[in-house]
Amino acid sequence: MPVQNIAAMLNGTDRRSIGRSDEVVQLVLREPRRFRELIRCLWDENPVLRMRAADAAEKISAKRPPLLERHKAELLGLLAEAEQIELRWHPALLVLRLRLTAPERQRAVTALRRYLDDRSSIVKTCALEALAHLARNDARLRRDVRQLLAESLSSGTAAMCARARNLLNRYPA
């Protein structure tokens, strides 16, 4: 059976479609060494390919979080530099699955706070989720994140309100 090129599988032009990303998920779960090939796609010049690669990486990492660890520095960089809306919410979720040092956690928090100003409700909602997760194990962050969640209840979109309510119930003071 010929080796399938992950970038070719994810290539496309329709931003409304995940294309063959679910096939890539199954391929990488069978062949974890191919995860590096997928991660490289997050920096491809084609925005559709980047979006699909991020979708696949997020789905894979939900099942196998350790695959992310060797790419931690790259992913924290992507979290800070990503501008494409369809790409941004995935690194916000990927960061939840990383073991972060205190300086790495602060770097992630700085990037995620900027995501709260994004025009996309999905990006903002994913940032809230990630911040709440990071604050769970960091008492210094907890008060600020609880305030952000409370503010989202009164001024956020419907999705942000629902997520903030859920997060406040899951992570009480």
Question: How would you explain this protein's 3D organization?
Answer:
The protein has 173 residues and is mainly alpha-helical. 71% of the residues lie in helices and 0% in strands. It contains 11 helices and no strands. The chain has helices at 6-10, 21-30, 35-40, 47-63, 66-69, 72-81, 85-94, 102-115, 121-136, 139-155, 158-170. The protein is globular. The termini are far apart.
What structural keywords apply?
single chain, 173 residues, mainly alpha, 71% helix, globular
Radius of gyration: 16 Å
- Major sheet description: none
Distance between the termini: 54 Å
**Beta fraction of the residues?**
under 5%
Low-confidence stretches: none
Structural class: mainly alpha
Number of strands: 0
Tell me the series of helices and strands, N- to C-terminal. Answer: HHHHHHHHHHH
| Shape, per Cα inertia axes | globular
Put simply, the count of helices is 11
Helix percent reads over 70%
Mean pLDDT: 91
